Amino acid sequence: MKFIGQLLGQHLQRYPLMELTDLYKLLHQAALGAGHAIGDPGQVREALRSECTTLDAGDGEPVVDPISPDGKLARVHLRSYLAAGHDIDALADAFLATPQNHPAAPDKLAKFCACLGDLADSGALPFSRSAVSQYFDAVVAQGFPVVRHSHTYRSAYRPAYRVVAVPLLPLR
Questions:
Q1: How far apart are the first and last CA of the chain?
Q2: Total Cβ atoms within 10 A of residue 148
Q3: Going residue by residue through the chain (172 aa), what tens digit of pLDDT does each one get?
Q4: Structural domain boundaries of the chain?
Q5: pTM of the model
Q6: Which of 51, 58, 64, 134 is the most buried (most CB within 10 A)?
């Protein structure tokens, strides 16, 4: 899949310390969104506000970072979003409404993951086909679980974003 190669290439360029877990998390979000993170709306809003009060300076991430083939699902990076003067409540609204407006597509996740061995063989990934196959065979056997970013990724890049359906986000 051309899109997956491009998406992963962009992210590997920006985040060269990505591990297989981080690649999988990106693909998981691209196909399934972040519905798993939606609970009580009040708690979701409070967690977002709280996280925003603890952010340090950013290092140039885009405000909206499309992750789906149609560009309608994106990671919205909190540091850049706030630095651009956007409203945190509007982001919370969009985040909460995303699962209803961008339904999870498990079949897409399976397709996305299926092409990774070929990408590894072509040199587009910094992992061997056997490492990719071993990791993704385990993920499939576990039913495509939700994962956290790797410790390396969290330490190096301090991820702070929400996965949002872009059409729901009023950007001025």
A1: 33
A2: 11
A3: 688 999 999 999 999 999 999 999 999 999 988 876 677 899 999 999 999 999 987 668 999 999 998 899 999 999 999 999 999 999 999 999 999 888 888 899 999 999 999 999 999 999 999 999 999 999 999 999 999 999 999 999 999 999 999 999 987 6
A4: 2-168
A5: 0.92
A6: 64
